[in-house]
Amino acid sequence: MPLMVFGDSLVDSGNNNYVDTTLKADLPPYGIDSPTGRPTGRFSNGRNLADLISEVLKLPESPSPFLSPQLSGERLLYGANFASGGVGISNDTGIQLGNIIRMPEQIASLERYQTQLAAVVGGEEQAWEMVNGALFFISLGTWDLVGNYFSAPFSARAGQSTVSEFIDYLISEYAKILRRLVELGARRVLVLGPGQLGCLPVELAIRGRSSNRATDCGSEIQTASLLFNSQLTQITQQLNRELGSDVYVAANRYMIAYSFINNPDAYGFTEASVACCGQGPYNGVGQCTPASNLCSNRDEYVYWDPYHPTERSAEAILEVILTGPPDVISPMNLNTMMEANTET
């Protein structure tokens, strides 16, 4: 089953290396735990969530970045990664980062991919069937909140609307993106919302907190993430009703991450607040660079850098996506979706 990946830096496998942006993962120690030990363009010490899902699908390798010259020939059969670090649902999200690949361009790239695929598989009909059979995976919303509405020290968006109004707008725009993916052939879409945003090292460095409990992380942005995830589940349910089929599955990353951060020991983590790589309070200031502080016990950290999970943390997220109950992934988990695909 091919994998089509869309969204932000949680799942970007290297597209930002090919564009003019300040948000890149092209220097050490990014990729320190990858097979080569070198940066791969992923915002991780090793594999990201898209890579892990590609392994679940038993693909020979993780889909290549769409902008990579390596995406050709047989590799097109595995799918493609269109994601770009820093993007959001709103097109004004990430404007401070330069020429990241915003969602309209990611979707246009899917159309170009289908043309390339048709040349490999023998025609448009065969390419359409492959896209129909793919798993689509999309991660959006984090940068709309962290890098837009709640951006420090100033947010134009916060001056224009309330948090609730902004989330209503985001969900409305997200629904348009999800509908468009189905128009272009998607039949199985895994949708991932933002996590415990107030507990990100970058947010803790800015706003601090009074204890180690997840509920004491920046309450306003936490509430916004919780509301976003709740509305995302609702809109995917509505879209499924419109289609008469469970095409969309929504994973509530806020609830998934809550467990790691409130009870890290149960998941084998010893550090759920400080980033492994960074500087300043909570290692949450700026980006991870060769000059940053770097932990040695990376499997024990929830966060790799000020914004992103470690490979080990991504594995824990994946486990819930695969087997989680309906209150965190709805209307079914990924294993159930895969079983349904096998039966049809």
Automatic annotation (TrEMBL):
Lipid metabolism recorded as keyword: yes
One of the record's GO molecular function terms: hydrolase activity, acting on ester bonds
Pfam families from the UniProt entry: Lipase_GDSL
GO-annotated biological processes: lipid catabolic process
CDD domains in the cross-refs: SGNH_plant_lipase_like
Keywords: Hydrolase, Lipid degradation, Lipid metabolism
Family: Belongs to the 'GDSL' lipolytic enzyme family.
Name the UniProt record assigns to this protein: GDSL esterase/lipase
Source organism of this protein record: Linum tenue
Native organism taxonomy: Eukaryota, Viridiplantae, Streptophyta, Embryophyta, Tracheophyta
